[in-house]
Amino acid sequence: MASRFSSACFIGRWGHLARSSSIPCFRFLFSTLAIGALSACSIKQVILPSQLQVAVNQAPHASMDPASQRSSQAMYEFLVGQMALMDQDVAAAAKHLERASALSDAPSVVLNGSLADLYLREGKFDKALSELDKALLNAPTDYSLLLTRAGVLEALNRESEAQVAYELAAQSNILQVVPDPYVLWAKSLERGGNPSAALAVYEKLEKRAGKDPMAHYFISRAYEERGQFDKAERSMREAMRLDNSNSSFGLELVRILLKAARFKEAREVCRAILEKEPTNSLAQRLLQQLAKGEQALSDSVRQLSAENAHIENVPDSHLRVALLQLDRKDFGPALRELSLVLALSPDNTQARFYSANILAGSGRRKEAVQELLKIPQDDVLFLKSRTFAAFVLRQDGDLEGAEQAARQAHSEAPEDKNVLAYLVLILRDQRKFKDAAGLMRQAISQEPDNDKLLFSYAVLLRDMGEQQAADAEMEKLLQLNPNHPDALNYIAYGLAEKRLDLDRALSLIERALQSRPNDGYYLDTLGHIQFLRGEYSQAEASLSRAVSIVGDDVVILEHYADALVMLDRVERAIEVYRSAIEHGRDSSDAEQREAVARIEKKLAELIEREQTNTKKQ
Asked: Taking the CA atoms of the chain, what radius of gyration do you get in angstroms?
């Protein structure tokens, strides 16, 4: 029976390091939004506008007069443009959609909106505005279009028109009041030297804010900047009430209280934050300084409590709103805002990085990588951008590109073991075992007692066919850390496969399960050992639990079916064998194919045996 030490299984039975701690979790803002699964944050695919759908349905029956020909050609150009967008060929998409727009007799939200988005990304604000105006003829109250149009007007320095447009966007958004148009409207007024009008906008938002904590946050900031600390406190406390898990609201409140010289209350808020988050370093530092009295406030605390007289520029305001939209998972509007930011400020790497997150999540992965690779080496986001690019490229099967991006990340931060582990994983995917081993040995020479490195190196040695060396490294790791669960599982499973010292194997896997009692792979190892010891009922119970946790692993399903056979539960065993074959049939992994071949043979023998028994009866 195969031992499942292959590279494809590194993130399975043998990949707990990668699964639990090695691969960075790419999330929007890296704190509030989940990349765990990048595909989960999908933007809906573009749908055909109704008038074009009608045209498609009627096209075979229409007479080919000039108007019909024009309509048919517009439909064709639109469809080709949409296909180009799906293929991430932006230039071709723009060319065909422009033709469709010129040929169309009536405006279309999807057609003209798509063109506006493309023009916005290229910084062609006049053209974007023209397409937005056309789209709004069909959807005059479309909140997202109105908000984008206001931003484009602002980018064109048509501030007074932009302010009117923001007001229209705020009025149109009647179903869900969000702070976005109000914030941008107020910031535009502030930049125009009209702070009193800006405050009036925030007061309008306050009347409609409802249960949106970020709306109350912005209202609080507006009052704070004008020295109205009582009102600022009231709004920030409301934001805290609506979202009591957000400690940043508490820290904002501390700043307000410091400005108002209410140090006792500031201390109380810091203590409340630390009750929920004992490791909040900023709250700890503030509390320490506050305990020494006003005169002992550190520079960081003074900076926190200083008056914020900064007036945001246009890109900063739109980036702030884009982050709000990301937090709400409004990915389409957020991408438009970020496109506007990048058109106005191409060096804004924050906007570029967040834009890449959205593009990757919506399936536009080539564009995402292009954006990530534009972030320069001297930027603070360089490391994250290259690691993320490596992640996307590896998922798409471009292992050479993934390796290049991962090597750039590793060169930037050679001490980062997460980056190293991911680079090694990519090298293993390409079977560049010597390169991977060289990197691992270099890292281990610097940190000889790093158990994560030692575990990864042992698995790598196994991949290279150096079984004895791999086992020796794993035993060395177990001496260093006797309760390392992955090492315990590794050695236990290896002993079981060799049918050696099953008593020790059982003891090791039981220790591993003390750390991770619900790990499906550990439970499989336990069940496999119990099976080899002839403890079939116990094995079936353990393997049943393993299948419930990791139901798509071919070998776990095989082990479970083997136990069912020994308990004479033949019908269920046949069902599980077939499920294992189905799960592994199309696998590109050699070990999985080997397992499927083995299971097919077991299944055929079992069915033949049952047929023979039936004939005898």
From this structure: 31
Name the token pair of 82: 């949409």
Half-sphere exposure of 95 (CA within 13 A, CB side): 6
Closest CA to 97 of 112, 86, 87: 112
pLDDT tens-place string over residues 415-437: 888 899 899 999 988 989 889 98
Residues 218, 213: Cα–Cα separation, whole Å = 9
Q: How far apart are the C-alpha atoms of 77 and 285, rounded to whole Å?
A: 61
Residue in 3, 87, 33 with CA at minimum distance from that of residue 365 = 87
Tell me the two tokens of residue 131.
């397409």
Classify 329 in phi/psi space as left (phi over 0), alpha (psi -120 to 50) or beta.
Answer: left
Buried-state track 206-218, b at ≥16 Cβ within 10 A, e below 16? beebeebbbbbbb
Q: Is the four-CA dihedral 114, 118, 119, 121 of positive or negative sign?
A: positive
Pair 320, 328: CB distance under 8 Å: no
Secondary structure element (H or E) that encloses residue 418, with its range: helix 417-429
DSSP 46: P
Q: What is the mean pLDDT of residues 234-241?
A: 92
Q: 441-465: string of b/e by CB count within 10 Å (b at 16+)? A: eebbeeeeebbbbbbbbbbbbbbbe
Confidence check: pLDDT of 384 > 80: yes
Cα–Cα distances in Å, from 317 out to 8, 180, 186, 567? 45, 10, 10, 68
CA atoms in the 13 A half-sphere facing the CB of 538: 12
How do residues 595-606 score in pLDDT, each as one tens digit? 899 999 999 999
User: Residue 56's pLDDT is what?
Assistant: 45
